[in-house]
User: Fold this.
Amino acid sequence: MSEQPDHNKQGFWSRVFHLYYDGFRSMTVGKTLWLIIGIKLFIFFVIIKMIFFPNFLSSKCDTEQEKTEYVRHQLVDR
Amino acid sequence: MEELINVVDWSRAQFALTAIYHWLFVPLTLGLGIIVAVMETIYYKTKSEKWLATTKFWMTIFGVNFAIGVATGIILEFEFGTNWSNYSWFVGDIFGAPLAVEGILAFFMESTFIAVMFFGWKKVSPKFHLAATWLTAIGASLSALWILVANAWMQYPTGCEFNPATMRNEMTSFAAVALSPMAISKFFHTVLSAWALGGVFVCGVCGWMMLKKRNYEHCQRSLKVGAWVGVIGIVLTMITGDTSAVTVAKYQPMKLAAMEGLYKGDHGQSIVAFGILNPSKQAFDEQDPYLFDISIPYGLSFLATHDFNAFVPGVEDIINGVSCDNEGNEINTVSYAERMERGRQLKEMLSQYNAAINSGNTLMQDSLKSVINADFKNFGYAYLDKPEEAIPNIPLTFYTFHFMVTVGGYLMLFLLLALLFAYKPEILNKAKWAKWWYILAIITIPLTYLCSASGWIVAEVGRQPWTIQDLMPNKVAISDLSAGYVQVTFWIFAVVFTALLIADIGIICKQISKKSQTNLDTVND
Assistant:
C-alpha cells in the first residue's frame, strides 16, 4: 500500500481538492462509470438536446409577449 | 385532427418510456441509500470490520446505480420544452419553482455528499462520513419530494391563479402547492415503496449469493437490515396507499372509478378483489362491466372514504354530475356536459380578454380576469368533444391497479418471511426447500419493479385525458409538431435508455459476482 500524504494539515480547499483528486485517481469500477456518465451527458446535452429538443416556443417567438400571444392563439383557436 | 392525435399519442408514449426507464433507477437509489446509511450506522456503533465490509459492498452497488441513473430525468424536462410547449408556458412558475428547489438544494446536496461517501473513508472522520451517507440518502429523497410536488400539482392544481394577460398560472401560495394532500400522500407512498424495493433487492441479491453458497455471514448481516427496511417500507406503503386512495376519491373520482372498472356507483360499494373486465363494455350501455369478478362487500366505500356505507360514484355518475359529499351522501353536482359548456364560455371570455388588451380597456380586463378565475376549474372541459372523452383507459388502469395491490400484498408476506429467516436462519438451514426460497427472492426483484411501474401507470393513465387535471387536456398541451418528429426521438430514447439499462444491470451483476467471490467479512481495499 502506498504512503498517503497527510492532507489534514492543509487548508480546507486543499483538502477538498485532494478528496476529489485522490478519489478519482484510486477509482476502479468508478472509471467505467465516469466514462458512461460522460458519454451519456454528451448524448443527452449535445446530440439530443441541441439537435432534437430545441425549446419549441423560443424557436417560434423572440419575446415573452410573442410567446404569450402564441399560446393564447393556441388555446383560444384550437 | 388525426395528425394531432398521433402527435399526442407519440408524445405520451415517449414521456411514458422515458419516465418508466428513469423510474427503474430512482427507487433503488432511494431504497438502497437508506439501507447503506443504516448499515454504516451499525458499523459506526460497533466498529466491526464485518459491518464496514458489508456497508462498502452495498455502497458500490448504490454507486453504480446512482451513476448510471443520474441525469436520466433531465430528458423529461427536454420533452416539456419541445413536445409540451403549451403546457410548459401555461403552467408557468408553479412547475418551475419546485424543480428549481430540487436542482439547487436537493441535487447539489446529494452530489456533494456522495463524493464524501465514496472518496472520504480515509479523508474525513467516521462521524462526518456517516453524516455524509445519511445526507446523500436524505438528499435523494428531497430530490424526489420536489419532483413529486410538481407531479401532484398536475393531479390536483392548487395554490395558483390564472393570469389571462400572460396566459400563465401564477403561484399564490407555495405552501398550498408543496403541502397539498396529493403531494404529501404521493411523496410518502412513492418514497416508502422505494424502501420496500431496496429491501427486496438486498434479499434477492443475498438469495443469489446463498444459492451459490458464498459469503453466508455477510448475507445474514445484509438481510437483517434489508428485510427490516423492506418491512417498514411495505407496511408504510400500504398505510400511505390507503391515504392515497382517499385523496384520489376526493380529488380524482374518475381515476378511482377507472381503477375499479366501476361504471355505476352505489352506497356500500364493493371492491373487486379479482376480476376480468368485459372488453366490449362502454359507458352508458347495459352490459356487465365484468366477465368474472370476486368482490369484497363494502370494500370500495371503506377504501375511498373510511365509511362502509358511503356512496362511491362510478364513471357514468361522474359524467352525469353525481358525486359524494363529505358525509358519504349521494349528491348532484355539475355534469360534464355543463362543465364543457362553462369551459367554452371561459374560452370565449379569454378571446374577449384579448380584445380588451388590444383596445386598452383595463376595466374590462379586470372584470374578465375575475370571472375567468372564479370558474377556472372548468376551463379544460372546453376542449372535449363529448363527455366520454374524459374517461381514462379503464382496462389499463384497472389491471395495473390490481396487479400493484396483489404484488404489494405478496411483498408484505415475502418481506416478513425474509425478516423471520434473517433472525432464525436455522429454519432455512434445515429446510430442503431453501433453494426455492432463494430463487423466489431473486424473482421477486423484477416483480417489485413491475409493481412500482404499475403504480405510476395507475397514477398517470388514470388521470387521462388531462395533462393538468380539469384545466388542460393533452391535445391542448401539446406542441404543434409532426408525429414523425416525435417518433424519431422516441426510438432514439428507446435505444439510449435500453443501452443504459443493460449497462446498469451488467455492471451491477458483474460487481456482485466479482465481490461475492471475495471474503466480504473483511475490508478488501
Observations:
- The mean pLDDT of chain B is 93.
- Chain B has three domains: 2-160+175-252+392-515, 257-332, 336-387.
- The longest strand of chain B covers residues 271-277.
- The longest helix of chain B spans residues 2-46.
